[in-house]
Every structure is written in C-alpha cells, then in structure tokens.
Write a structure and sequence with these properties.
four-stranded antiparallel β-sheet; Aminopeptidase; 2 domains; 16 strands; homodimer; about 375 residues; alpha+beta; Alpha-Beta Plaits
C-alpha cells in the first residue's frame, strides 16, 4: 500500500515511536509505533517472530511446528498466492493442521475481535470500447453522432443498472444460489453483535444521515455482515473537467469489487456475471479481473478458534466473534479443498489505520501480542 | 476554445499562411491561414468587415443597415448572450429584419451548405452527492458499507439508465411532445440529402464498424438529422487509476448535453427532466445547467435564405440545404419571440477544423467570402 498524499506525523517508513496524542489517540494508548505497515503487516510479523525467538531462548523449543507463508501481493489481489504459489507448495501445505493469519485486533473496548471467516473477493474492471459490435472505434466523436452510433457510456450505465436493484439486491441470475444460510452458531453470534450495535454512533462513525433507502441500521445489520455484494469503486468515461466537452466518448470503464460469502465461489460468480451481460444484450462488456479468491469460513468450535478464545481469556480479555468479516483476506488458499484447513486471524494488541496516515501499533500492544502468541501456541498444542 | 495538447503546423495564435499540403489538405486548396479562430470565428469576422470596407471605399455606402452583435461565450454556453445581453439590447435588435451568422461553409465538393436551423442546446452536470437523502456525507467509505449505505455511483448509473432505452429513445416523459414534424419542405430536403448519403464512406469517416444497434445508416439518417437527443459527454465517480481502490465513492457526476429541435424549448425540457428524476425516485440528482438556449428554424422560402442561394448561384456555386444543423448556435436570441427573425448562417469559402489542430481558412476562400458578402448584401437589399 503506497503512501499517496497522506499527511503523517512521522516519516511513514521510519517507524518512529510517538505519544498517542501526537496521532490523535487517547492517552492510555501510550507510546505508538507509527509507520506504514505497523499494523498491516510488518508489526504483527515482527511480534510473531519475537515470540518464537523468546520461546527458543527461554525453553529451547516451540510447542508446535510452524510453516511461514508470505503473500507480497495481498493489496493487488493475491493472484500468485492463490494460484502458482499454492500449486507449487501444496505438498508442504498439506502438512499443516491450521492456518493462522497474524491479526492482533483488540477493539476500542479492549475485546479481541475474531472473524470466523473472510469474504471472497474479485476486483477488476468492466469496460466497453467501440469496435465490431458498434460504437466509435477510432476515438471520440462529436456529440450529435450519439443519435446514430452506439455509445459505450450509455451502454455501460445501462449494463450497470441491470446488476442491482434500488434496494441493493444483486440481479445477476443465480447470484445468491449458493449462499450458505446462517447456521445456528452464526445466528447466536449475530444476536450478540446486534445487541451491542449502536445505530446513532455508527451513523456518526460512517458520516451518514441515513442507512440505505431510509431503513434502520438494525434492520440492515445482518445484510451488512452476511450478504455478498457487488460494489462500484469508480467509473469514468469521456471528459469530466470544467464545463462540458460536447463529445461522444469511445470508451467507458467501471471498477468493481465483488465480495462473496460461503459457499459461493469466484469461478461460479464470474461465470454467472458473464452470462448475465450476454443474456441482457451486453456481450460487449469486457470483464477484466485483477484479483480474485474464494471466501473462507471456520467454526466457532474449531480447535484453533477455541485456543484463540482461551488464550485471550488467560490474559483477561474477552473475545467477540463475527460469523464472517466484511473484507477479504486470501485464507481460501488454506480453507479451500484439498487442504480444508480452519483458517482465521486474531490476537491481542491495539493497532489500526491500515491504508491511511499514521498507521500504528501501540508499543504495549506489540508486547501483549508477543505474550499472546506464546499463550496461543501452547493452547493450540494442548488440543 | 483553448489549445490543449494539439500539435499544430504553425503557432496557433500567429495566423501563419501555409501551403495546403503542410496541413494535409489537397493541393488545390492553395494557401491557407492556419490559426485558432481562422474558421471559428475570427476569419469570417474579418472577411465580413473587409467586404463592408470595400463597399464603402468603392461605392461610398452599404446596401443594407448592419447591426453587429458579438458573443464571446459561445463555447461556454452563451448564457449572457441569450440572457442579459438580449434583454439589454432588445429595442435595438427590434430594428433588424434578419439575423445572419457568418458561416462560410463550402463542402468538399464545393457546394455552399446552408442549415435552415440550429438545434437548441443545454449542457451541464448531473450530480449525486451523499447527504440528507442518504449516501456517505463525509467522504468515501470502505467498499463493504455499500451493503447498507446508499451509493451515489449505483444510483447515478440507475438514474442515467432511466433516461434512454437501448434503441436511443429518450424516456423522459413528454420529451418528444413538442417536436415539430418535418414539413413538406423538410421532407424534400431530406430526400435530397439522403440521395447523396454514402453509408460506407460515412462509416469510414466516423471510424465505426456499425451504426446503432446494427441498423443501417440510411435508416437512421433522418434520426441523426432531425431528432432531439441527450448525450453523455462523460462521467466519473471514485478512483479509476491502476488496479482498484475498494472504496465506496461519496459522489458521482455525469456531464450531459441535450440537443433540442423546434418547437421544443429548454425551459420545457429541463422541467420535464427534473420531474422525470423525481417521479422515478431520484430526487437527489442535482441538475446543474451551464449553457442553454432554444432551437431555431428558418424557412427555405425566407428572403434571407433565397438571397443566400441566389448570391451563391451568381458565383457559380450550388447550395445544399439541411432542414436543421445537428449542432447548436444561439440563433434563438433572434428567432425566438418577440423578435421572430429568420436567423441562419452560410457563405462561400473553404475552411474547417474548428476546435482542433490546424484550423484553417483558405486564402482563396477568404477572398471568395468577401465577394460573396457583397453579392449577398445586394441580393438581400433587392427583396
């Protein structure tokens, strides 16, 4: 994740230690390591390595075997991680019993937040360019030619409008076919989460006046947590500077990200998306996927989950479980067949602001995470 | 019209005289004045003034009275010309019998092209920003919040899709109500134009493989010449650079231009557009008009038209009449009530490439235009 035009309190690649108040955090957060990657993912990696080093220094061994896997392209869609990497090292990965994603995650109240799964994701572009099907093939035309030449801009707007209704339901045929209904376990966790949902605070946090279509946040909370989605991240066509250039663009582009839940798969959904555009008369929409992996899901009762909860308990910290996280992490590398591993992330320690200015990991949080890792590995070894 | 990143054969504001071949024109075009404004509109203005000066020098007078009006904002929508200017000088303008737009216009074959009207135009922006109605009001959100917060990007795509069907018909209620059907005169001119329409050449000129929806250009020719339209000039929302930023934009913008034909008016159509969005559940679409004027139409049998045709005849040049031009020029300032003047543009002389690199007026064309103006003014005085 590059540093764009963010304003940092310290150089983003120096890893300076600042007081919490210097980066607008409460005083009780104490000293903070401020750097790009402090939270995502250099801080947790160093914490984990420090824990293993301490174990070897103090005990001479580590209670479980550890295989490290690194994905240097997670922000770019993990195409090599979920593809060639996994294929190349499948035999080695088959020796693993669980997959653990280094994700210290104490929330504002201090609870460990544990996500029992991750949405799958596909992101990329929908593009229409003039060509054999119609449309200007050699550059933009003067606006009135829109009367007798097909318009990539109109057609992309029309194609996008076929994807979703105004309530937010995806209209791609069969999109929801394989959505696994919430289990009894999921329902129970949902009820717990909903009990602590603060509608007004959430509106303030998000900077919104109303939830979708004026419905209540409580009503939409399960949708937010549990449903798959297609988001428009951006779109562009033609000139959009000052005034209007009355031209007829030869190209229109939309950036989208699709987020799936178990048991949807990306192959299935991208196939359905292609069929959708073809059936609805938009064969000219090119679907260019740049990052793509399946959803993953682990049970509350899986040994790794229980070890994580017990380890936090031993440090006096409560765990809040979400049935699934709304964002994507490519844990499907481990949770998909043939590995079928339980695969989740968790841990103690305060950190935040991934992808934005003043990303941080509190010094106390880093120490706590190192201790937590030792506790967790012992709990895992006890299974 | 500024010079952006165009590549010119001579400095665009020097008005150098170059050989036709230096700007990729046929040799028989001879010497060419190459400059921004050579064709639109400094060249014709100087030609007209030169003609009047010559008349006074040779004859001591001019056969008709002339009132000059200048619009310095034609490329920006002429809002002051059609508004405050017209209002301020209405009494002076009431003294006029005809309105003439300086538009020497010989085509490749050498014919004078005379447009018996101009489409009206409105251009501007359709914008949706998060706010009271919903949507992110304080900047973009992380993509998954699209599941429970209204999305300006989705809603603008859906709103645009309600404006036009896939065949290009405008779906704004009552949009075509006041379109004046082609007169017998229009029909005759249309048939003449259609007789010389070259489908394959037009496709090559436009750089297209097919006309709209695979229909023939002949079939769509009348639509192209005679129908009103809404064009998407461009749109933008969110991030559209390399890869995808999986965010949920708080703003979506479309640039549009609307082109009207007699007897539609901009007030009528913009009112209908507002009602359309409201009725279809998109009250949050803001319509921001930056330029706007009504269509204009003059009869083939109007004295000014006949004088123009006779003047060209006297120079041995044939005239091709179009019922209306597909582009807009604010002649409604003169042709709308209370003035109701016949108001058209025409003239001899070869020139072209307005708005693009190597805009030109041939030297011979400038001389011919000056002579034509003298002939035309005499023909007009004879009425």
């Amino acid at each position: 994740m590059p540093v764009d035009d963010e304003v940092w309190a310290a150089p983003p690649f120096a890893a300076e230690i600042l007081d919490a108040r210097a980066i607008d955090l409460p005083d009780f957060y104490g000293k903070c390591i401020v750097a790009r990657g402090a939270r995502n993912q250099k801080g947790p990696i160093m914490g984990f390595v420090n824990a293993l080093r301490s174990l070897r220094a103090v005990r001479g061994d580590i209670p479980v075997n550890v295989i490290f896997t690194f994905d240097g392209e997670e922000e770019l869609g993990s195409m090599n991680f979920v593809g060639p990497f996994r294929q190349r090292f499948l035999d080695e990965l088959k020796q693993a019993d669980v997959a653990y994603y280094l994700n210290p995650s104490q929330n504002a109240k201090g609870d460990q937040v544990l996500y029992l799964g991750n949405r799958g994701i596909a992101f990329g572009e929908l593009e229409i360019r003039g060509g054999e099907w119609g449309g200007p093939a050699k550059g933009p035309l003067f606006a009135p030619h829109d009367l007798w030449v097909d318009s990539p801009a109109w057609r992309l707007a029309q194609a996008l409008a076929t994807l979703k209704d105004r309530d937010g339901n995806i209209l791609v045929e069969g999109f929801y076919d394989n959505v696994r209904p919430p289990s009894a376990e999921d329902r129970e966790l949902l009820e717990q989460l909903k009990a602590s949902f603060d509608e007004e605070q959430t509106k303030r946090d998000l900077g919104i006046h109303r939830f979708k279509r004026g419905r209540s946040g409580s009503e939409l909370y399960e949708t937010f947590l549990m449903r798959p989605n297609i988001n428009i991240d951006g779109y562009s066509s033609g000139y959009t500077g000052a005034y209007v250039k009355t031209m007829f663009p030869d190209r229109a582009l939309a950036k989208i990200d699709i987020r799936l839940v178990p048991d949807q798969t990306m192959d299935e959904i991208l196939g359905k998306l292609r069929k959708h555009f073809d059936r609805h008369g938009f064969p000219e929409v090119e679907i260019k996927i740049q990052g793509c992996y399946n959803p993953s899901k682990t049970s509350l009762h899986a040994p790794i989950t229980q070890a994580a909860i017990r380890a936090a308990d031993l440090h006096g910290v409560k765990t809040v479980c979400w049935p699934i996280y709304y964002a994507g992490i490519p844990m499907a590398v481990f949770s998909d067949p043939p590995l079928n591993l339980p695969a989740i992330g968790f841990g103690l320690g305060r950190m935040g602001r991934e992808h934005i200015a003043n990303e941080y990991f509190t010094v106390e949080g880093l120490h706590l995470y190192e201790k937590f890792v030792v506790t967790f590995l012992h709990e895992l070894a006890r299974q």
